[in-house]
Specification:
about 100 residues; single chain; 4 helices; mainly alpha
Length: about 100
């Protein structure tokens, strides 16, 4: 397998895990059971699962009242997109006018 295939598999797995983790935490919240720490939810997003975390947040209506999630997860995604563009195009080709 080449590097891009491995990266794609990694990102699909991580986003699916982040999505399911949001649903699991929502289910635990409804039952007043032990919760998934917010740092774990953010860690999944930071390491590449931000799309899955955002989709899970909105589909499960989970953490939508917390500004650090409503603004933080999209901000993480935006930073990941910027970093991906920088790495894929080469920093020297990006011009800041």
């Amino acid at each position: 397998m080449n590097t891009l295939t491995l990266l794609a598999v990694y990102l699909v797995f991580l986003n699916l895990a982040a999505f399911l983790l949001m649903g699991f935490d929502k289910q635990r919240a409804r039952r007043h059971a032990f919760r998934v720490p917010e740092t774990v939810l953010f860690a999944f997003a930071i390491f590449g699962g931000s799309v899955g975390a955002i989709c899970g947040m909105w589909l499960y209506a989970h953490k939508t009242q917390q500004k650090r999630f409503v603004f933080g997860l999209p901000l993480i995604l935006l930073l990941q997109i910027v970093l991906a563009v920088i790495f894929l195009t080469g920093f020297e080709e990006i011009r800041f006018y």
